[in-house]
Amino acid sequence: MTPSSTRSYPSLHDYQQFFDRLTTAAPVAPDAGPGSSQENVFQQTLIALLPTVPAGADQLMMLLLKAVSGFQAMKKGQLDEGFARLEPVLAAIPTLPTDANALAETLVSPMVSFYHYRKGQFDTARRYADRSIALSNEWQHRYTVLHMHRIQQLFNLSRIDLAEGRYELGLDTIRQLINYLATGQLPTLPGYWHEPMLRQLPTQLLSVQFMEIVNELTFLALKRPDLEPTILNDILTDVSLSLTNTLPAAPSPYSALLDWAEAKRDLAAHRYRDFLLQTAYFLGQYPSAYDQMKLSLVRDLNQLLFRADASVQAFRPRLSQYINGQLRLPARLIAHLRASRAVATA
């Protein structure tokens, strides 16, 4: 829940309390988070899928394990080595029985798409993502978990749009997916959408995917601060209203989205004391899975300190200590921050 507050500038005492809590509070238990990223979604998809395959399940499992090995290498930056592990998998897929063939192509195509995405070959990346989406749409009636896989691949397609600078298209896809996951509101995106099918999926699977989308929005806000008003006002307004009515339990990806957006809106409305209190609440409430969102708030707080008088600016080194000592950030964000720092000092 959001702390009660008055709408005023923080006092020196408010800042002192904030930083005292920041430096003395024990870290939030890391296992309170929802899990991480595409590997978790893929593994849970696979676990749910394999027992229902009528023929070729063992061969499908062996091929997918090889594919996952290649995908993990690509995620570590070993693109060509990882793709080389995929090539024999791609060659073997046509030998599988009908269902296993379709499932293998559905699940491996995003890995090929990722390779081309990281190479900057966006047209090819889009083609493989589209293929996986089309197969997921075709087969989700028999294998319900592919409904989740299609959501994930549409999200990956939005990443390609964003990488190509198609922000309006990419953000609209994210808006529709996040509303669907949180509220069941049917998207207007191509394909078959059915809210009861969504509710058949494991809650943990939905939370992992929702968290991945929230982290992408946070990363985009950190990378492109000029897009943050669009994210808050156009992307998150409807879902925030719906989630407020249901009051999701914290910590969860759903409550985190509400609390993060509330802090951002306090700042945008110049309710600086409210922002400080809400930020303190967020940093203390959420585990390391939400550190990217924490950085977004801490960066805003740093700007607030920078504009304050000297007695308040004196707290800035403690904020840097918190960032460097307690936040666990993804490699791509660290790379972006370093690149930005290098440009700024050039």
TrEMBL record:
InterPro entries: TPR-like_helical_dom_sf
Superkingdom field: Bacteria
Name of protein: Uncharacterized protein
Organism: Fibrella aestuarina BUZ 2
